[in-house]
Amino acid sequence: MTNTFSISDMAKAARAASRKMARCPTHQKNTLLRHMADLIESNADRIQTENRKDIAYAHTKGLSAAMIDRLTVSGDTIRSMSEGLRDVASLPDPVSEITRVWNRPNGLQVSKMRIPLGVIAIIYESRPNVTIDAAGLCLKAGNAAILRGGSEALHSNQVLADIIRMALSQSGLPLDAAQVIPVRDRSAVTDLLQLEEFIDLVIPRGGEGLIRFVVENSRIPVLKHYKGVCHVYVDDTAELDMALSISMNAKVQRPGVCNSMETLLVHRSMAETFLPLMAKSMQNAGVELRGCAESCHMIPGMIPATEADWPTEYNDLILSVKVVSGMDEAISHIETYGSSHTEAIVTRDYERARRFIREVDSSVVLVNASTRFNDGHQLGLGAEIGISTTKLHAFGPMGLEELTAAKFVVMGDGQIRT
Amino acid sequence: MTNTFSISDMAKAARAASRKMARCPTHQKNTLLRHMADLIESNADRIQTENRKDIAYAHTKGLSAAMIDRLTVSGDTIRSMSEGLRDVASLPDPVSEITRVWNRPNGLQVSKMRIPLGVIAIIYESRPNVTIDAAGLCLKAGNAAILRGGSEALHSNQVLADIIRMALSQSGLPLDAAQVIPVRDRSAVTDLLQLEEFIDLVIPRGGEGLIRFVVENSRIPVLKHYKGVCHVYVDDTAELDMALSISMNAKVQRPGVCNSMETLLVHRSMAETFLPLMAKSMQNAGVELRGCAESCHMIPGMIPATEADWPTEYNDLILSVKVVSGMDEAISHIETYGSSHTEAIVTRDYERARRFIREVDSSVVLVNASTRFNDGHQLGLGAEIGISTTKLHAFGPMGLEELTAAKFVVMGDGQIRT
User: Fold this and answer.
1) DSSP A45-109
2) pLDDT value of position A2
């Protein structure tokens, strides 16, 4: 907040701190996370006082009720931040883990050892709890973090940054291991994205606009999540009740999130029995149905889908429905309109289950289970920092392991090349 | 070579071909590689005729003898291309490999399955054999490849592209699975680097200028190798003969490559015995020595090193030498001047070996072995497409596995989220 703020000094300090974090023993990192959790609880009033300044500012800016809701730090937010940190403290440390060892004919023993990535920048939008969740995961994996939340959350993020620094200090760790960018100016982000020398990875979390901005302006590698246009394909061998239950869960359990279903594909031989039951349940749950010509013909009240519907992530109680002739058309529809996020098949056919698994090119592919399981906690990663929908480095939910790299370690007794 | 050439059509065709390649069974991919090998041998004359056109062009352009040497396709080059392909055919197929399986309390079985990355663009300089080596590795890992060699190698690369197409056709695979950009114009590369939608990864291979150009202009993720400033640290507990043998091998066995040693760090207590012997051997092998003040004082004929020497990749018979007070100074020197490529320690001390392995942040860290082992063949990866010196996705030599990603596969019996 001073005139002397320099994003490049911040990044340099993060690089130096990352070297110390990389060597930090597991117990010290766990102590750090538990100190953070305690300090969040003991400073709850102070956090909420600062948060109210952001909320007041948001009102003067005329932000939407939904935005203000995301910005608000409630008692539940406080609890969920500290419990999240204690959970991460109890997860295994990925750093120094040996994932594979093999021997060479000349007697060299080669292994791969997990190491921290180094410095990770997280660029996100309004929720202040991301400051704590992201810092906790980055630090546990031995990295330094540079955090940049939404400009509307600046006071909240600054007080959380202060708490992290107190915890780093109590734990004898470098104060620059987690830093929040203290200015609202967007040019700080543009400048940050050029600092390839000091920052190893950028993770943007937020709307497609933010993510495209980061990808287009970054020289640093980006792990990104564009959108989740998730499909469920109900095969003609599907068990009717299971198909209904998975479809309903995938659509209505939490329609605003990326792993909810946006398009339901139904085998033609199944359509006549399945579609009316599905439509009734969906309509009872308040879901607006937009269908292909064939399904509109079968279901009264269904709105004709247009070409614009198929690639759309509604994030809402809206579902597009298409009758397909079988696996070929289902897979081809997913290839054309999907987002490589999450797709599920409901089937009793062994061959088709195998084919769907092999041929569908998404970060999570499920057989007879809801798309809502694409989530770090649900899949057993312990916690997640986001979901990647591009394939490099990580594809799907990213946990602690995805915040590490691996180096080769070679042990010899004097071997040379001839 | 025609007016109608469009880089974006090429990339679209590659994307479509990549979907077919991703589903191609292992035996068919191996047959493809063996067809390529046979066709290279049976078309050796044609390849060399086209190659002579490039060499003639290179002479008119006044290219250096070293450049012309790299450009030349000899009988040995032909043999090494076809043997390389047959070797890759015999390697295990990484695609569909399940790397981990675990169960969730709700009965879901979760696994990680390797899948191809999709479309890989390789941008390289003068050696035409890279066209074949890179295409072979990309195709074996189920990817499509877009290849862009040096403009001086255009005729050679075009005939090799033609041979790859013949082999794809003989194997019943899509002809667009490996394409060579048929124009010299550099803007084709700039355009290619924007096609994030169709291309998943770019691997530049060549000098630092080429690599920086790609990083600065690409929206597509880049796997890159900036430089190899490799260090050997001779600890005071090192066995003298082993330290000499490893140092000599690391410097002189092939000084022009990235994994050769550029800087030798020597523990002060070892300097008096080790440096004179090392200097004599190095000088006998024609190595120019550039030393810190302390080593210059001990070794007659050593040139004083300047600050500019420490971060320099000589790629030549030149070695910088520094006396250090111990592990702390050695590791700190590597952190300051190294390139995260390859570092080795020579020691008999258990604790120091462990500390060097843990704390040195390079893609390959060796104990009592030559830096020259940072190589896909030497480390047992079978073949390599390059060495990555940044940590995301791959760090160190990249084999077939590094040309794949992994998706989550979830098998259930109707599970939904509650």
Assistant:
1) HHHHHHHHHHHHHHHHTT--HHHHHHH---HHHHHHHHHHHHHHHHSPP-TT-EEEEEE-TTS-E
2) 46
User: Which 8-state DSSP code applies to residue B285?
Assistant: T
A395 closest CB neighbour out of B222, B391, B405: B405
**Taking a C-beta distance cutoff of 8 angstroms, is the pair B323, B305 a contact?**
no
CB atoms within 10 A of CB A108: 21
Eight-state DSSP code of residue B402: G
Please compute Rg for chain B using Cα positions: 24
Tell me, yes or no, if B362 comes closer than 8 A to chain A by beta carbon.
yes
Which of B267, B46, B57 lies closest to B166, judged by CA?
A: B46
- Name every residue whose Cβ is closer than 8 Å to that of residue A9 and which is 6 or more positions away in sequence: none
Q: What are φ and ψ of residue B205, in 5° steps?
A: -130, 115
Tell me if chain B has a CB within 8 Å of the CB of A357: yes
> How many other CB atoms are there within 10 angstroms of residue A382's CB atom?
17
d(CA B396, CA A115): 13
Q: Whole-angstrom distance between the N-terminal and C-terminal Cα of chain B?
A: 59
**DSSP-assigned letters across all residues of B252-280:** HSSTTSTTSEEEEEEEHHHHHHHHHHHHH
Tell me the β-bridge partners of A85. none
Identify all chain B residues contacting A113, using CB atoms and an 8 Å cutoff: 357
Q: Report the 3 state secondary structure along B167-195.
A: HHHHCCCCHHHEEECCCCCCHHHHHHCCC
DSSP, residue by residue, B104-167: -TTS-EEEEEEEE--EEEEEE-S-THHHHHHHHHHHHTT-EEEEE--GGGHHHHHHHHHHHHHH
B359–chain A Cβ distance below 8 A for any pair: yes
Please report, for chain B, how many H helices and E strands are present, in that order: 14, 16
Residue B417: which of A96, A117, A378 has the nearest Cβ?
A: A378
Is the distance from CB of A291 to CB of A299 less than 8 angstroms? yes
Residues of A within 8 A of B19 (CB-CB) are 335, 361
Among B196, B253, B408, the residue with its CB nearest the CB of A363 is B408
**HSE toward the beta carbon, residue A301, CA cutoff 13 A:** 11
Q: What is the enclosing helix (H) or strand (E) of B78?
A: helix B75-90
Query: Looking at the complex, does the CB of residue B221 fall below 8 Å from at least one CB of chain A?
Result: yes
B246 and chain A in contact, CB less than 8 A: yes
Averaged over A130-142, what is the pLDDT? 97
pLDDT in tens, A330-350: 999 999 999 999 999 999 999
For residue A4, is pLDDT > 80? no
In chain B, which among 59-118 make CB contacts under 8 A with chain A? 96, 102, 104, 108, 110, 113, 115, 117-118
Residues of B in contact with A406 (CB under 8 A): 395
Which positions in chain A touch B380 (Cβ < 8 Å)?
Answer: 102, 104, 110
Q: Which residues does chain B have within 8 Å of residue A108's beta carbon, measured at their own beta carbons?
A: 369, 373
Gap from A350 CA to chain B (nearest CA, Å): 12
Q: What is the mean pLDDT of chain B?
A: 95
- pLDDT tens sequence across B202-221: 999 988 899 999 998 999 99
A240 to chain B, any CB pair closer than 8 A? The answer is no
- Give yes or no for residue A1 having a pLDDT over 50: no
Partner residue opposite A363 with nearest CB, options B215, B372, B407: B407
Domains detected in chain B: 7-224+397-409 (3.40.605.10), 230-377 (3.40.309.10)
A411/B367 touch (CB, cutoff 8 Å), yes or no: yes
Q: Indicate whether this model's pTM tops 0.90.
A: yes
Please identify among residues 258-297 of chain B the ones whose CB lies closer than 8 Å to any CB of chain A. none
Segment B342-357 mean pLDDT: 98
Q: What is the mean pLDDT of residues B328-352?
A: 97
